[in-house]
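Records of this kind hold a single protein each, on a pair of labelled lines. With that in mind, the following record should read easily:
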Amino acid sequence: KEIVSFEYPCYICGNILSRARLVIDHVKRVHGYELPVRHVGHHRPVDPEYEFQNDPNGKSEVVHYACASCWFHCPEAGLGELAEHYETAH
């Protein structure tokens, strides 16, 4: 399995934030949109292709952009893909 770590960018301006909740707060405060929040205590489901690195100082083979509202993620170069996901899913 490929080891993936996540970055949480704003899908509107591209600003990278350290946690999903910060993206949700940023989008509301700066851009005026409300995004859904994941439920507390729900963990990312196991994926057959990836192992997820949750330690910010841990090693990973690749970085993905992650949706702040659900489990969607895409390669780091996919800000357009992430924006399309937000617009269609949230």
Remarks:
- The mean pLDDT is 94.
